[in-house]
Amino acid sequence: MTGCVRMSVLMLALGSSLIGLHAAAQTAATAPHTRGDISGDWQGTLQVDHPLRLVARFAKADKGFTGKMYSIDQGGQGFSASAITVDASTVKFTIEVIGGTYEGTLSADGNSIAGNWLQGPNPVPLTLVRATKETAWEIPPVAPPPKLMAADADPSFEVATIKPNDTGATGMQGLTVNGRNFQTRASSLGDLISFAYEVQSKQIVGAPDWVYHDRYDIAAVPDVDGAPNPAQIRLMIKKLLKDRFKLTFHQDKKELSAYVLTVAKSGSKVKETELQGSLPGINIRPSPKGLTLIIRNGQIADFTGFLQILVLDRPVVDHTALPAKYDFSVTFTPDDSQFNGHPPPLPAKTDAAESAPNLFEAMQQQLGWKLEAEKTPVDVMAIDHVEKPSAN
Length: 392
Description:
Blueprint: E1 22-24, E2 40-47, E3 51-60, E4 65-71, E5 78-87, E6 90-95, E7 100-106, E8 112-118, E9 123-130, E10 157-164, E11 174-178, E12 181-188, H1 189-197, E13 204-205, H2 210-213, E14 215-222, H3 230-244, E15 248-263, E16 271-272, E17 281-287, E18 290-298, H4 300-311, E19 316-318, E20 326-332, H5 359-366, E21 369-385
Parallel strand pairs: 13-21, 15-19
Antiparallel strand pairs: 1-2, 2-3, 2-9, 3-4, 4-5, 5-6, 6-7, 7-8, 8-9, 10-14, 11-12, 12-14, 15-21, 16-20, 17-18, 18-20
Helix pairs in contact: 1-3
């Protein structure tokens, strides 16, 4: 198949935040430090439904500082900080993997930073306090990755519940795998075919309209122990489509417009992942300048697959030859042709925030990749028969 969907729609819920939404300041009585020296551990608390403790750990480097942030109530995984600057009393840093930034003012004694955490359209107050030996929070060990399903397993869904989604959603709201539990919300049959068979919607021909318009919530559990890999998840969905939707089709070829992804002359700017696990995470959320698409532990095929299923109106072909798994994000302003004309809500414009560039410019500037249109023969799925799902 020309389409390149892997676990590309295995994403966090739209607009969700790894770290919370409200801040609570802390205070600590420690000795003054050299002005501008932020090396050491800093602590602050955010709250969603319950407090989440954050630890920012900085160390001196040849030029400036290196750092990591830990959300210790969510595990011991550290996320690298970049763009760490201390300019007079202003401290800034970015956590690229979760699309978060922080900016604050260093106190006169160098023991606290009062500022704002930004991981979405609205800034949230957050005060970080320098930790001492007595006050420092313990960072827990990183949890081991989940037990994986045997690589040679041939799984099916042992139990699968399919319910109509009548919320009025115009696009898939999520496709997740948590251990052995598979769930998707507001997915059309077209979405599931695209994901399972690694094709874009224009590569599906001869399907009735309801395939794209009717939406379903599906919850399912495999009949084999262990967390499935991407290929096994696609296999289980294929079997579900055949069993419950009576899907049959044959292969054909058709000349279509496609997007070809290559590395720009300036070179790729993305970094290999810091995360463990076999599955990627994809999240898209509003930001002050537009929409930010975040990839965690993802291959290039995960990214191109997400683009061709949910963002763009044609197949995306990967010609980058980038082999690893990566953590990266790109912020862009969508146009009317993207997200099937229904993009996620954009933040209200302010005078201070300039709009992000379009997707194509943003990818070249921020990722070092080029996405260009090209007409080429591609494989298509010609639908022979399909039915609305059988009862649970």
